[in-house]
Amino acid sequence: MRLILLGPPGAGKGTQARRLEDLHGLKQLSTGDMLRAEIASGSDLGKKVEAILAAGELVSDDIMVEMIAHRIAKPDCEKGFILDGFPRTVAQAEALDDMLANHKLDLDAVIEIKVDEQELFDRIQKRAEEDGTRADDTVEVMKNRMDVYKNQTAPIIPYYEGKGMLKTVDGMQSIDDVAAQIDSILL
Ligand code: ADP
């Protein structure tokens, strides 16, 4: 099974992706986690993207497409994967289509987790207070990440809608309820 989880920052993509990973033996591919690992390792790529993440801007499509193309070809993705944080632009979505076609693979579903903006701010603020380890979990950067989502990422929703692949779940419900909605889509 190959899935995309889509939604604004704080929508709960990571939480749901980790559950699906355990439940279906899929590999969660979180581009945010991959980028943070590059930064932590001090690699050249990490140095290049650190300020971009801290500001809540997007890393270039070229870098992200290469990162995912490399990743989905690894053996641990053979049983399937959940993309969490990719694609984030229409150009990335188009590149993903090419990539999958080259490997003769299909997507099973694109699941959008919908959450109100005010709720997202409350969640991120809480995460910043409790955790405080992510440089982009501040109210200022959060505002920018929301704008970036609206301007650059939200256009991929009609892109997948047009292909008849989009499924939407109500992300304002509890974690278990959101999980149940996702499960009923994947039945
Ligand atoms: P969240 O899940 O909270 O929205 P992520 O952990 O997925 O955030 O991503 C954190 C940051 O990593 C983003 O704000 C962006 O700077 C960068 N990033 C992650 N994925 C992509 C992508 N596909 N394209 C460009 N930048 C990305």
Q: Can you describe what's shown?
A:
The protein is built from 9 helices and 5 strands; from the N terminus they run E-H-E-H-H-H-E-H-E-H-H-H-E-H. It is an alpha/beta fold and 187 residues long. The longest helix is centred in the last third of the chain and has 15 residues, at 139-153. It has a single domain (2-186), classed as P-loop containing nucleotide triphosphate hydrolases (Rossmann fold). It binds adenosine-5'-diphosphate. Adenosine-5'-diphosphate binds at residues 9, 13-14, 31-32, 35, 52-53, 56-59, 64, 85-86, 88, 92, 136, 145. Residues 9, 13-14, 31-32, 35, 52-53, 56-59, 64, 85-86, 88, 92, 136, 145 line the site of adenosine-5'-diphosphate.
Per-chain topology:
Elements: E1 2-6, H1 13-24, E2 27-30, H2 31-41, H3 44-55, H4 61-72, E3 81-84, H5 90-102, E4 109-114, H6 117-130, H7 139-153, H8 156-162, E5 166-170, H9 175-186
Parallel strand pairs: 1-3, 1-4, 2-3, 4-5
Residues 9, 13-14, 31-32, 35, 52-53, 56-59, 64, 85-86, 88, 92, 136, 145 line the site of adenosine-5'-diphosphate.
List keywords for this structure.
single chain, 58% helix, five-stranded parallel β-sheet, binds adenosine-5'-diphosphate, globular, 5 strands, 187 residues
Précis, in short:
With 187 residues, the protein is of the alpha/beta class. It has helices spanning 13-24, 31-41, 44-55, 61-72, 90-102, 117-130, 139-153, 156-162, 175-186; strands spanning 2-6, 27-30, 81-84, 109-114, 166-170. It has one domain: 3-Layer(aba) Sandwich (Rossmann fold), CATH 3.40.50.
